[in-house]
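Treating backbone geometry as a discrete language has practical consequences that deserve illustration. The sequence in question and its structure tokens are set out directly beneath this paragraph.
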Amino acid sequence: MELPGVQLRTLLELTRSGTMTAAAAALGYTPGAVSQQIAALERATGTELVRRTGRRVELTDAGHTLARHAERILAAQAEAVAALERGRAEVVARLRLGVFGTAAAALLPPALDRLRARHPGVRVVSREVDVDQAYAEVCAGRVDLALGLDYPDAPLARDGDVDVVRLRTERFALAVPAGPAPPGERVPQAARPPYAPLRLADAAGLDWILPAAGSYYGRAMRAVCRRAGFEPRVVHEVTDTATSLAMVAAGLGVTPLTELMLRLRSEGIASVPLRDRVERQVVVAVGAASRRRPSVAALIGALRDGTAP
């Protein structure tokens, strides 16, 4: 009897979530895909594992039994891989890394150069993932580890199966168009040259460029603005950082800015320091057992070196 890891992970998430929809959201699947994985697992075991009760699903006795063993099976597989790696004289492995746009452009190339120089036997294949799905991609087993962002006002989910390792804490400034304000445009003096530290509340009357409110980033930025006493006037909802900065340079609004973001584009924008402490953490999500793999530790080390100021 073959029990694929992806099906066992789906069963475990369904056990935690209680509904196909919630499990799908946690794993980054569609509800139909979750249902297909469970059906495939039932065919493989020849046993009914779940039954529907209204909108929810309940595990049968057999489902509970398999779920208990699934956790141990997956942990044992990860530990076996880690033990085999630790037993080799050289670090040799193939790792799947989830990245998002800013990380892929600013962090990944130099990190892989460092990793190749230190451990040429480690091969990294990357796939771009939605930054808000980094944790789910690791939970679902589609990647071994994934770069992500964590905000105090919109923190990532946590559970015992996946660790969130901090690489760097970044403090936000405010990106404004470089040069003098256009005639007739009301811009706080602190947001015009010469630039001085700006209170977030002083930007209340400006047009803002932010991601949608449903994203971690969008939710976090709106929360800090509300704490400063205003609702940001979001005139452009944009997810891509380089696009947001290009729009700032064109005079279409202001947007939060960190040093990593500035690596994507600096032309035509000025960075105004904020007196308010607004921060985010650059993190890597990794399976708790996989973190003990020498290759994973080596990749995290190369990424951490690349996030140093």
Remarks:
- The mean pLDDT is 86.
- The chain has eleven helices and twelve strands.
- Residues 7 and 36 are 9 Å apart (CA to CA).
